[in-house]
Amino acid sequence: MSNKILVVDDETEIADLIEVYLKNENYTVFKFYTAQEALNCIETTPIDLAILDIMLPDIDGFTLCKKIREHHTYPIIMLTAKDAETDKITGLTLGADDYITKPFRPLEMIARVKSQLRRYQKYNPAHSDTGATSSAASEDNLVCGSLTMNIKAHTCFLGETPLVLTPTEFSILRILLENTGNVVSSEDLFHKIWQDEYYSKSNNTITVHIRHLREKMGDSMDKPRFIKTIWGGGYKIES
């Protein structure tokens, strides 16, 4: 079954171009030029990934991203204007997993879509092996104090409270938990999460995701219980 991609952009040439390249990769594309049309689609259609432009004629892409995140955890890629750093940070803060700067290379867009889908499907419970042994199930659990993550079930709990994480947030936290006690640099996080040659990002990307994780965990940068910032080094979680 092909993945279902939602594309929302009021610039018809760009939306049509994205559609052509996605269909060439055998994705099923749901293309809209307004946010309201996209919201109507989301209510009735299971989506695997969304590509959202920020400047839309009715509801802006930030609001659309926020509305999607109220009920869905699939990857969201934002389309931003060139060098609009504030837009990128805002999108990431609202739950987007990545951004593409206009104008963009179609192959770069395809690479990012594949990267996000690969990570999302790897950890989505719908793709887990229900016949796993109890030993394997134990290996799927990462625990640090009151923080518990199950990789296959794609769940994370702080005590008894579930943490609703985006695919990127889940991946970052998983990497830190797998390296408990060790410092993971921002560069290593980039490499482990985005393994495409097209990715060249500033530290702001990881910083925003870390900040969002801390907010969801009720953590503090000044007196962290879980994620510690190692200045000049990266981040780590201590047992």
TrEMBL record:
DNA-binding as a keyword?
yes
Q: Name one GO molecular function term.
A: DNA binding
Q: What residues does the Response regulatory domain cover?
A: 4-117
Pfam families attached to this UniProt entry: Response_reg, Trans_reg_C
Q: Does the keyword DNA-binding apply?
A: yes
**DNA-binding region per Swiss-Prot/TrEMBL record:** 139-239
Ranges where the OmpR/PhoB-type domain occurs = 139-239
Residue positions where 4-aspartylphosphate is found in the record: 53
Could you tell me which InterPro entries the record lists for this protein?
Answer: CheY-like_superfamily (IPR011006), OmpR/PhoB-type_DNA-bd (IPR001867), Sig_transdc_resp-reg_C-effctor (IPR016032), Sig_transdc_resp-reg_receiver (IPR001789), VanR-like (IPR058211), WalR-like (IPR039420), WH-like_DNA-bd_sf (IPR036388)
Q: Which PROSITE patterns match?
A: OMPR_PHOB (PS51755), RESPONSE_REGULATORY (PS50110)
Keyword field: DNA-binding, Phosphoprotein, Transcription, Transcription regulation
Q: What does this protein do?
A: May play the central regulatory role in sporulation. It may be an element of the effector pathway responsible for the activation of sporulation genes in response to nutritional stress. Spo0A may act in concert with spo0H (a sigma factor) to control the expression of some genes that are critical to the sporulation process.
By what name is this protein known?
Answer: Stage 0 sporulation protein A homolog
Q: What is the organism field in this record?
A: Blautia faecis
